[in-house]
Amino acid sequence: MAIVLAAGFDLSSIASIGSAIALLVFTLVTAAHFRVRDETGASTLVLSVAITSTVVVLVTFAITTLVEEPATAAALAVIILLGVALDLGWKRTRDGRIPAG
């Protein structure tokens, strides 16, 4: 995947995709933190501000990228869809296994 990206896009596009993926990961990790906030003692307000700020930045980034670099936006969409498809496939494979022990 890295070779295809490096051959097909310039360095700024690759950096843009990496930034968007990082923002998406930060958002999802913070959202998941809501489930364990009682165990960690995390503030609901701080988690909410963190999610809101990363989502605002991610949406702004996505809109800007779509307007200025449509090929990068398309590559980002493909990467996200591929990630979701791989995750769903992995879960189906894992759920079909017989537990050991």
With helices defined by DSSP (H or I, 4 residues minimum), what is the helix count? 5
Overall tally of domains: 1
Radius of gyration: 17 Å
The sequence of SSEs as H and E is HHHHH
Give helix % range.
Answer: over 70%
Outline type: flat
Concise description?
The protein is mainly alpha-helical.
Overview of this structure, please?
- It contains 5 helices and no strands.
- The chain is mainly α and 101 residues long.
- It has one domain (2-93).
- 10% of the residues are buried.
- The model has no long low-confidence stretch (mean pLDDT 85).
Task: Indicate the topology.
Blueprint: H1 2-8, H2 11-33, H3 37-40, H4 44-68, H5 70-95
Question: Could you name the key traits of this structure?
Answer:
5 helices; single chain; 101 residues; mainly alpha
